[in-house]
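Listing S7. Sequence submitted for prediction.
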Amino acid sequence: MMSLTSHIAVQLDRGICALEAMQPAAQLLARLYVAKVFFLSGLTKMRDWDITLALFADEYQVPLLSPTVAAWCGTGAELLLPVLLVLGVGGRAAAAALFVVNAVAVISLSEIAEAALQQHVFWGSLLLGLILWGAGRWSVDAWLLGHRANRMHR
């Protein structure tokens, strides 16, 4: 007969296994959500480039870069990095680069509303999770690592 302690340990182990089985889905959802936010921001910047340049000249105070260079770099990053993140190609690097873009966005605004700041904190925390734990099993990175491991064991 199983003791109460053993029964609890078995149930906890089952619960942990269930949570771990959900990790790839959670990582994919985090990648999709954050990628959508940044990609749509990049599309908005592309829609009216003159306004984007004006915003970078007047509103955003990006350190170390001219407003034009900052606009090009920021927009390019917002359009390219989310695609890499969704696919999970260089997932940790893409998440780290978007984390920097997110941090620069917060730093470069002279005034930011509390609600907007909280959004940036949320995005940053999702990106930090992807940096720490990777893009997950449902990513090109995982697929490539699996193929590489299979070739090495032949």
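Caption to Listing S7: primary sequence and predicted structure tokens for the chain studied. Residues 102 and 113 are 15 Å apart (CA to CA). The radius of gyration is 20 Å.
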